[in-house]
Amino acid sequence: MSIFAYLPPLPPFLFSALVVSGLASKALHIALHFHSLPFLLLVLYSPTLILPDVLVIIAVRVLLRFPAPENKWQWLSTVVGGALSLITWGASSIQFGFFMQTGAEVAWAAGGSFLSDPAAMKILLSGISTVTAAATVLGLVSWLLHSHLYNLIGLGLQAIRDLCMGGYNARYTLIAAPSKSCMAFTDLRSLRRIIPAVIISVSLLFLELSRPAIPYDHLSGALPLTLLEAFHRKSPTVEGCREPAVPFPLMVTDLNGETRPQFEPDSSFVEQWSRASWLPENPPPGFTRWHLSPNERAEKDNQFAFVCGGDEGGFYNPKNDPLMISNLGGDIYEPLKKAFDEHSVQVNHVILLTLESGRKELFPMQQGTPMFEGLLASHKKQNVKEAIDRLVTMTPVAQQLTGEFATDSNGTKVDLSHSPWRTPPQEGMGGLNVRGALTGSSLTFKSILGSHCGVNPLPVDLLEESGLQIYQPCLPQIFDLFNEGKSQSPQRRQNDSQTQSEALSHPWKSVFMQSITDNYDRQDILNQNMGFKHKVVKSDLESPDAKHKVQGKEINYFGYAENELAPYVLDLFEEVANNKTRMFLSHVTSTTHHPWGTPDDFKKEPYMSDQGNINHDLMNNYLNAARFVDIWLGDIMNMLDKTGIANETLVVVVGDHGQAFGEDNKEMTGTYENGHISNFRVPLVFHHPQMPRVDITANATSLAIIPTILDLLVESHSLDERDSEIASALLPEYQGQSLLRPFLSSVQEPLQRRDQPQPEAHKGADQVESRSQPDGFSKRLAWNMGLINAGGSMLSVTSADIPYRLILPLKDDFEYTFTHLGEDPGEKHLTKAWTLESLIEAVEPKYGEESIAWLKDAEQVGKWWVSEQKRIWGYREA
């Protein structure tokens, strides 16, 4: 007997696949939000949640009947019904596969962007094994139930038809039934038949109309209808003028009981936007808002430089930014000031190392963090000491870069003799180490916009910023501006070299390096927009004309391990050392990106054991990848020593975002639509061997990187007179604070308007007591915003001196989440709700009225920030 004899008829099987896949998907969808739904309301509205699925099932059952050979329309309907069934089966398999990998659900709205990006497709295909497993299970269940479901639904539809038609025989199929109105009732018996159907229909209609839109509209979505979201991709446009800024929402009450805005913008437009005296005639890209005066802009018909309905500039203006808190009026840390005054710190080169998935807890790995305790939980008690000693020796280079030296199981400082790089034994030297830094986005290149350009990202999915003008100059553009000034003033360079270090007259060269592709999500376009003219990426490594041939295999779906760049990095260091060039190198690592592969010759360590109810293989691979990157950082530092430029190079290390695992949060893993705090804590280090070590505790973000670099170049006398003037003029234009000076988590400002006499403002208070101060001052907080991958769905809101954290949904598909990081630093106990009112009801009994006041402010500021970012970027959705 042929094997095909065991296969089901195609229409019944396809229909069964649609029913099983659709209902299974809906069950998963509801289960993921079950904990945040009131049980009684869920039961009450549950019929409306499955109503769309029922309608889809009915429609496809009508389409999927056995076609007659002579009826081409029946063949067409069968093909359409079969296609809908296959699409539903595939989409449901993807949902279950994605859930098994991450614990989250797929957002189809962002799917279109992934499907249109070849590099992104590799990410999707990396989970093909779990998707295949899910499809197999769904297909098997469908095969077992195909005849029952097909016949049962068919008979049910015939019964409904017969009820309407007055009792015709079941031998008629649904399509071939005689045409007769359901309202043609001739007797009381027919009326009795229809009454239950009318009651059910009216009840469903009432529940549908009366239920809250949030979250039940989202929960009622049915496959394959929800897939339509993937084809509705919004695109940015910058045509026309910019809309006026929305006023800052927070209000304060003065001593007289009058309510007024906490922040009022500066109206000194003409002075702010006049041509800068330090700008050359033809500046490099990135300086548009200083380049043209208002009259010159009008002549060039650049209407987008203006706000609609007025002459006010539409570009970013720091004087009108209520979230900007400047600490430039504060003194530099005393040890740094002394070193700068003695001219013992020289910065001729800057390296910005961005660690992919770089969690602060791994930089360095040491005891005392929630992550470390979670890792030890995978080991048996008798093996804990051995596990501690293995873990604390995992990242020796990070220990030396940060000055955070780990201790072993006996409480003794770890022996770093095994380290691939040994810092010179200068006690108390090494630069700035920041504890408490948070990323501005858990999507890599949105985060890089903050570190390289000092801007907040655009709160939409994926890298739409690549098609827009970056509203601040990026580091390569700043260094290009330094170069243009030099090229235009050769005599000035000669004069300067007589009184200053010869290196100050050397031109800067900006280079971007990574061992993976730069085609993912338009990164290559973004790099050009940031001003990089030189790069080494995967395509260069694989080029037939490559100077150095690739030695290893690809380790993930993006490209190669970092050590393939070693000869290119060494060449660059030797070039700047021998050719009198100043260097800015930006390098992004990638080994710590999923799936955390390492070269074949790299020996993995067993950091995780088998205790607990989850598989620790993924975490173990990640830890080994982190150790590989630590060794690579040591290789870079050794190359600096080898070429003799270590003592004149500032090395900035920052994580683009963290990486959540099941050991952190059993509900969800990864960064995609996962707001867990482990995805946001990142290292931030400014290493220089001649700078005194300063440990800083501040909830800063990568926005602080450019201000700190500019401040350091000026204060260390590492720029000539004109470049120092430019850097000093640019410094107060950036939203971030300079970390050479004490970080301000808030400022107290007078309640009087700016055009009235004002008492001197008091700055830098440590605690927030109330929003209305009894001495006539209002306290303005340093708010930190962090976009959650993919960017347009959720926003992390924190303020620098308050331990609360809010995950603010930007779409109705997501919940509000509150945590108190002071009491729950690992976010093990989340408070979730679908509305702010429900969240307040849950939070107030635990944390009191102060938490409620902060929550209300945080929601208002977060929503204002979203609209303001779109305005600043000039983003309109077309």
From TrEMBL:
Keywords recorded for this protein, A-Z: Membrane, Transmembrane, Transmembrane helix
Q: Which domain of life is it from?
A: Eukaryota
Signal peptide segment: none
Q: Which residues form the Sulfatase N-terminal domain?
A: 520-713
Where are the membrane-spanning stretches? Answer: 37-64, 76-99, 119-145
Location of region: Disordered: 748-774
The family database entries (Gene3D superfamilies) matched by this protein are listed as: Alkaline Phosphatase, subunit A
Q: Which InterPro entries match?
A: Alkaline_phosphatase_core_sf, GAG_Ulvan_Degrading_Sulfatases, Sulfatase_N
**Pfam families xref list:** Sulfatase (PF00884)
Give start-end positions of Basic and acidic residues composition bias: 751-769
Q: What name does UniProt use for this protein?
A: Sulfatase N-terminal domain-containing protein
Organism per entry: Penicillium bovifimosum
